Amino acid sequence: MDLVFYHRILRCFVLIDLKLGQVQHHDIGQMNLYLGYFANEENVEGDNPPIGIILSRQKNELLVEYATYGMSSQLFVQKYQLYLPDRETLRRELENTLREASP
Q1: Residue 73 carries which DSSP code?
Q2: Do 23 and 54 form a contact (C-beta atoms < 8 A)?
Q3: Is the four-CA dihedral 68, 81, 87, 92 of positive or negative sign?
Q4: How much is the pTM?
Q5: What pLDDT does 103 receive?
Q6: Nearest partner of 3 among 57, 50, 63, judged by Cα
Q7: Can you tell me whether residue 93 is helix, strand or coil?
Q8: Could you tell me which residues come within 8 angstroms of residue 87 by beta carbon, excluding any fewer than 6 positions away?
Q9: Which residues contact 50 (CB under 8 A, 6 or more apart)?
């Protein structure tokens, strides 16, 4: 794990793994192992199950879908960018997200 936080409001550990390249199936399995460890060894009474986040430069949607199939844990894989997009790109992305979210 690269980063471990405790979210006071959610009352759970948040585990973050940073990957420089594309996420591999063993990265997801490793995160699931850490989630199990934290749930069984670090959580105290009243804590919620830990959340795992894998951030990578490249994300293979199909690999993520199959590698997490049937997992009941809260494990998320997402792509990151090294630089913020320009103002116009960010504005368009925000408008698209808001349009998709509205009923």
Answers
A1: S
A2: yes
A3: negative
A4: 0.69
A5: 66
A6: 50
A7: helix
A8: none
A9: 12, 13, 14, 15, 34, 35, 38, 39, 42, 43, 73, 74
**pLDDT tens per residue, range 30-53:** 999 999 999 999 999 999 999 999
Rounded to 10 degrees, the C-alpha dihedral 75/79/82/88 comes to: -120
> Biggest alpha carbon distance in the chain?
47
The three-class DSSP label of residue 18 is strand
pLDDT at 66: 63
Kindly report the length of the chain.
Answer: 103
User: For residue range 50-81, what is the model confidence (pLDDT) as tens digits?
Assistant: 999 988 877 777 677 667 777 766 777 777 77
User: Which amino acid type is present at position 78?
Assistant: Q
Angle, alpha carbons 42-46-49 (nearest 5°): 55
